[in-house]
Specification:
Layout: H1 10-17, H2 23-30, H3 42-49, H4 54-67, H5 71-83, H6 85-97, H7 99-107, H8 120-123, H9 127-134, H10 140-159, H11 165-190, H12 192-197, E1 198-204, H13 206-209, E2 219-227, H14 233-252, E3 263-264, E4 277-278, H15 280-289, H16 293-299, E5 303-307, H17 309-324, H18 332-340, H19 363-377, H20 389-398, H21 404-428, H22 439-448, H23 455-487, H24 498-507, H25 513-524, H26 529-546, H27 551-565, H28 569-577, H29 579-589, H30 594-600, H31 621-634, H32 638-665, H33 676-707, E6 713-719, H34 721-724, E7 734-742, H35 748-765, E8 777-778, E9 791-793, H36 794-803, H37 807-812, E10 817-821, H38 823-837, H39 845-861, H40 880-894, H41 906-915, H42 921-945, H43 956-965, H44 973-994
Parallel strand pairs: 2-3, 2-4, 7-8, 7-9
Antiparallel strand pairs: 1-2, 1-5, 6-7, 6-10
Helix pairs in contact: 1-2, 2-4, 4-6, 4-7, 5-6, 6-10, 9-11, 10-11, 11-14, 15-17, 19-20, 19-23, 20-21, 21-23, 22-23, 23-25, 23-26, 24-25, 25-27, 26-27, 26-29, 27-29, 28-29, 29-32, 30-32, 31-32, 31-33, 32-33, 33-35, 33-42, 40-41, 41-42, 42-43, 42-44
Amino acid sequence: MTSAPGRRSSTFTRLLRHGFTDPSAAERLLDSAGLALVRNDPVLLDALGATADPDLALRGLVRLLEAQDGPTARQELLDTLIAAKPLRDRLLGVLGASEALADHLARHPSDWQALVTYEPRDLHPGVEEFERGLAEAGDPVSLRVAYRRCLLSIAARDVCGTIEVAQTAAELADLATATLRAALALAGAAAPEDAALCRLAVIAMGKCGGHELNYVSDVDVVFVGEAVDGADEDKALRAATRLAAHMMRICSETTVEGSIWPVDANLRPEGRNGPLVRTLASHLAYYQRWAKTWEFQALLKARPVAGDLALGEEYVAALQPLVWGAAERENFVADVQKMRRRVVANIPAAEIDRQLKLGPGGLRDVEFAVQLLQLVHGRADASLRSGTTLDALKALAAGGYVGRADAAQLDDAYRFLRSMEHRIQLHRLRRTHLVPEDEADLRRLGRSLDLRTDPVATLTREWKRHASVVRRLHEKLFYRPLLDAVAALAPGEARLSAEAARERLIALGYADPAAALRHLEALASGVTRKAAIQRTLLPVLLGWFADSADPDAGLLTFRKVSDALGKTPWYLRLLRDEGAAAENLARVLSAGRLAPDLLMRAPEAVALLGDGGGGLEPRPRAHLEQEILAAVRRADNAVQGVTAARGVRRRELFRISAADIVGSYGTESQPAEADQGALVDLVGSAVSDLTAATLAGTLRAVVREGWGDTLPTRFAIIGMGRFGGHELGYGSDADVLFVHEPRDGVDEREAAEAAGKVVAEMRRLLQIPSADPPLLIDADLRPEGKSGPLVRTLKSYEAYYRRWSLVWERHALLRAEHVAGDEDLGRRFTELIDPLRYPTAGLDEEAVREIRRLKARMESERLPRGADPKLHAKLGPGGLSDVEWTVQLLQLRHGAREPGLRTTRTRQALAAARAAGLISEDDASTLDEAWVLATRVRNAVMLVRGRAGDTFPTVPRELGAVGRYLGYGPGHAGDMLDAYRRTARRARGVVEELFYGGL
């Protein structure tokens, strides 16, 4: 077959045309002695070209021919191969798809004859046929050989398209059943005395139990043992355990013929910590008392397969009532919410996009959705009680529990993804769920699925399309039938009954399913365009609501917002067309009371949740002031001006709270913010800037109405406490000092009266009852406290501080910062107080003792009666007060010589103290973590309850909502409280050392 130099042979060209990627190597193989007589036979070349990998098929064929026992056997194989199309397609199809089975045929060259027979009974073998195929195996090695021979026949029918993916999975499960029986027989033959003592049933679980096994998969089992009549139970269980363990080793251990597959018994009660074999009574007691929801979910697929089948049937019959009653268990809703969160944290980042099983839109999504619906509705409808995913999906559609169109799309996607999984595993018979990255592997995989035109690109496109279908339908599968049940638009379509709809809503976390169904009916009924869009949106929205601690509140508020905005043309279009808006809205509405209350006062603010409209990024203070001052200028009087300012404040509070919620919860496209401190800083800075802008606008409105453009006295507002520290929370008052300075030629009494009127009017206007939240101004940190005048001149402050100031006042001034009004006056006030708060000589010991006494008295006197000190975020051990007083004592003592300490912000001062070597890295980290967590708790309480609080709520739903905000899943409120106590306890240890003992 040589050709002239520089010219390709005709065979080379034919080989390229038939799909060979290495025609030169293929030519050499075809020239080998074994293929000399058939190398030009077009039948052979066409058959090789039809395989998934012609190069691999040809190499395997040459190896098989070389392994034959002499020329006669070799000629028999060639003659049969050319003459018999069924064998040709089967054998070459396997060789082109599976390197591992080619290896098997090379080791056992006569096994090709298992593919010759082509009788109808061979097309769909069952357990009996496979048992006959394994019958002659008398030891573990021969069992492996016989198993691979049977596997060869399944793979041949699979790659030739004689059986489809569900049949392949069923046959693999039947082969596993026959293999377990053979292995148990070998174990019994090796220990007949053990076999005589006990009855042992092998229950298949997982994919084997569900009749949907992969080519390479752990075979999940549970063992049930009983003593035979007259035998001691303990001895019988020990004997059964030895038999079970031996059976597992026969299947799992690696020999010269490799292994069959691992047998995994970890789904048994107590997992690997529990006994391998239990009696039926022991199984029943465990599931009645201790089992979790996922364990009942696993039992959906339980099926007796080996050993004492009568005992196995007793086991299944005894546990079935518990399985189908699982939806009524106390923790079912919380368990479901936990299970519904896709577990991807342990998948390496490099693999998540290649995961067929666990990745987004993967097989697990389909299987979980189907199993959950079975648990919810299978109690009342026995037709749903199938362990096979596709059969159960078909039954769910037939009963109206799943939309028929959705079920059909999901069925198609599941079959495609399972086919990919089968062909990936078949190549080397290795357990994997990862789509390969190598071009050659992808090409073979695509061709094996009959994607022959540009197989790599087509495979990738089809895979992503089907995964997208699964992602899109995963939530709709739960919720669309609920809408169909209340909307009743398509005649003839099976629908959920009212009871089935109620059961599903309860299972998914809705506490008041009757109200939820009324809301759905109000939103989705009718033939209007609005109702049609709602029916499109709601299946996904309902899933996001159910992912929260209070789905009912989310759905109710969504109905209210929709009622308020439903006739505006942009509202539903925003939710439908802008990817982020709908999910952001769902998160915000179901996270607690504050954000929905703010939104309901002006529903048009929902536009902020979209990709446009300014988004959720908090606005800079300068922009806020500009907008508010412009509104004040347009207003007819001070009341209108301040009303406008408060309206801006309400809108921006909604923006900030929404950004905080979305950042804390995360979305499908954006994970939750990992840096909790960043979220705290975002809220503190944004709310503080907003408060300052609101005060600036209110000041301008009051001055404009009473005095025109110029007040008789210069007037400045100094932020104190959290306000001055840029650390305001949602429910914080504005702690301030007021300072004024008469203008040239103005009588001091006139100036003082004007300043007093400004303060009184500002406080009144900001607290007038209205749809907007009030802004409370607290001036109690002024000289002489509540006994002193509300506003003083700069000179008066100077005189007071020079003569009368107490340690606590110098301490309070650490947070003082100009926030509104006359900037020059604010600057001069700051210059006045700097020597007081950053004394050149630091603090003397008496001043330090006084601060410690004040702190101790506050701890004992101000903690609310009945409150748990360990969970009080402000005043409890390791809380905000502990951290702040420790940091502020450092500032008072060292601020004069350490410029970094001259800041009103706690975290900045703490970082500066660490940089200056005043506190260790570990201690600073401990205090920072505690301060951030305590601040987050206070923000969470305000978001959830709609009113400020310093300790965790006692109402379970509210506590759960705080947990979700802090990153804890359903059922983990206890873990949250324990984590808070640990963090606070560590911080208190640092405070005891630094504040009370050192510095």
